[in-house]
Specification:
The protein folds into three domains: about 100 residues, no CATH class; about 30 residues; about 55 residues, no CATH class. Helices cover about 80% and strands about 0% of the residues. It is extended. The chain contains eight helices and no strands. With about 190 residues, it is an all-alpha fold.
């Protein structure tokens, strides 16, 4: 019975936790309170481990939760339970799109989605740039243009950008350089 209940709980989480892995957290807290399969402390451990391992956060947390409750088979089972709704929805979307792949209307829809996705990515990038490169609280208190920028971060961003354009090394190298610079410069 626990296997069927576990499937249903994680299937619901996968179906309704729209917005990424952190959207899975309310479902995990609810599952924890109702079933006792894992504790709030276990959820804190899930987050820590899931954040530090490769893969999607929600999937990692489901795997950990299943492992906590039912061992290795439970980890595999909850992972499949959480991802099943996405596989079903994507299969349905694929079937619909395949049917209309030669449609001019469908081509126009996808053409129209490109600027929207570009804008969403640009907005996220600008948001990150604002947080990491600008010091708005200091600027608003001092009014000095020099206090507007986080100079070490800005210099590092320019160096990384020039490196990307000129050398085209693997992105992991730039991430490692940035991590070292963050530790050394206290960014």
């Amino acid at each position: 019975m626990i296997w069927l209940q576990m499937f249903w709980e994680f299937f619901k989480a996968g179906l309704f936790a729209v917005g990424g892995g952190l959207a899975t957290l309310p479902f995990l807290y609810d599952i924890s309170q109702r079933t006792g399969w894992f504790t709030a402390e276990d959820i804190a451990n899930m987050i820590a481990i899931s954040e530090s391992t490769p893969g999607p956060l929600g999937v990692n947390m489901a795997t950990y939760a299943g492992f906590q409750a039912l061992g290795i088979p439970g980890g595999i089972y909850t992972t499949l339970s959480l991802t099943a709704p996405a596989l079903i929805v994507i299969s349905i979307v694929y079937a619909v799109l395949k049917k209309f792949k030669e449609s001019d209307a469908m081509a126009r829809i996808f053409y129209g989605l490109r600027p929207a996705s570009t804008a969403l990515i640009a907005a996220a990038g600008l948001g990150v740039a604002k947080i990491s490169l600008l010091n708005l609280p200091l600027f608003s208190s001092t009014g000095s243009l020099m206090s507007l920028f986080r100079w070490p971060s800005l210099i590092l961003a320019v160096i990384i950008y020039v490196g990307l354009v000129k050398f085209r090394w693997h992105p992991v190298i730039y991430i490692a350089i940035s991590a070292v610079a963050g530790v050394v410069l206290g960014l």
